Amino acid sequence: MAVDIVLQYFNLNRILLLTVGLWPYQRTKLVEFQLYLVFGILVSIIPALLTPLLTLECTVSLLIKILPPVLITIICTINYFSFIIKAHAVKQIMDQLQNICTNLTDETEVDIMKNYGSKTRSYTASIILFQTVSSGHNVEEFVVHFSCLSILLLYLFLANYAAQEIIDHYNHIFITVYSIQWYAASICIQKMILFLLQRGAKAFNLNLGGLFIGSLETAGMLLSTSVSYFTVLYSTR
């Protein structure tokens, strides 16, 4: 499968990352300056958003008004910093993925890669469209809060959905191993199957930032906890 995966499947991601200086290739001094400039702007926005808490009376309605944009800015800042320190790892993953795609010869494997590549483009385009619509110049408070909440929920769902997909694929490998006719395989293959069965006995999960396990179950738990928290917060008004 001789194809440039960056241009074929990740071109939109490449353009977006180039815009904010996070594309892991071609890291010139100008790009380094762009990195620190954008990161400095993000960090400086946080205290500016928190200023009303120091100048105005701290009430529940004020917290509800201030917290959504503050949380979004903090999440963006953490993600941006993570990309900076993990740029080399991202580059390695892209190189490995390119090498894997180049060596693919089986039509089924090629179709699987094309399918996931198309999903990647669709997810990226959907997020951009959603953020564009959400950032309209409507000054109504409801629209502002709804947009912030929608972005947070979308981020929560997509991050945990991606983690769930990886976990499901991992588990599918061992389900397939359990189903094959191991007794008809050679001794070498049987040893490999035994190794996979032993490895499959251990639970696999993705630890997101050391805070929680990424999965759709976790997304539901976080959403339920958030609803309970804001219900209590609203009842104290």
Automatic annotation (TrEMBL):
Alphabetical keyword list: Cell membrane, Membrane, Olfaction, Receptor, Sensory transduction, Transducer, Transmembrane, Transmembrane helix
Main location (coarse class): membrane
GO MF entries: odorant binding; olfactory receptor activity
Residue spans crossing the bilayer: 35-54, 66-85, 142-163, 175-197, 209-232
Membrane topology according to the record: Multi-pass membrane protein
GO annotation, biological process: signal transduction
Compartment list: Cell membrane
GO CC annotations, alphabetized: plasma membrane
Claim: Protein biosynthesis is one of the keywords in the record: no
Protein name: Odorant receptor
Species of origin: Ooceraea biroi
